[in-house]
Amino acid sequence: MQIIPVIDLKGGQVVHAAGGDRNCYRPVHYRSSLCDSSEITDVVTRFLKLYPFQTFYIADLDAIDGNGNHDEAIDDLLSQYPNREFWVDNGSSYKVVSKATRPGNCKPVIGTESQRLPVSLQKTDLILSLDFKHNQALGHPGWQESPELWPDTVVVMTLDLVGSNKGPDFEKLSKLCQDHLDKRFVAAGGVRDINDLTQLKAIGVAGVLLASALHNGSLDTKTLQKF
């Protein structure tokens, strides 16, 4: 099972995401035992000292909310780590993403909360994020109702569980894994410890997005090596 650290960007810094209320997000180093800085390059360096992660997930929250962007910082990171893959969600539509020129180590994420009408991503190398909050699907319902539009890799993002220490939405993830055996599902939101990771692996989840459990020390190097 693939472990993917998450970097949430807001106001020029990496922030600690919790509960989906972005107005309350604060610089991550205030809550982290891993990092003493919230600069993006410093956080990535600390993550790589913890474990040689091959893939990172970046959410540009300002861009998603239509309040500027972190394009320059992200481009610098892509250049600095050409042998790492970065999944980037900046709220862009498929139309914008499909016309953009991007480095080979950048994989855009299409998040349903930011989209209008659904389009087919089946024959693309893009990542789809099915976004949920308070048990409600975000974005056009067609994304949820039309699995034939989905690409191979699908993130299941439960925003209100992010940073909540409440555990993942095992029920939703288990059903998706059972109903769509041809997809790679990546869990996002609520993972607390090795027990959650073990259960997610058992139900067929292919990958997990992590932030809080890395920053608070719940998952250390020895634990990560088991997956």
From TrEMBL:
Zinc as UniProt keyword: no
One cellular component term from this protein's GO annotations in UniProt: cytoplasm
Domain of life: Bacteria
GO biological process entries: L-histidine biosynthetic process; L-tryptophan biosynthetic process
Pathway terms, separated by semicolons: Amino-acid biosynthesis
Keyword Amino-acid biosynthesis belongs to the record: yes
GO molecular function (one): 1-(5-phosphoribosyl)-5-[(5-phosphoribosylamino)methylideneamino]imidazole-4-carboxamide isomerase activity
This protein's UniProt keywords: Amino-acid biosynthesis, Histidine biosynthesis
Similarity comment: Belongs to the HisA/HisF family.
Protein known as: Histidine biosynthesis protein
Organism: Methylomonas denitrificans
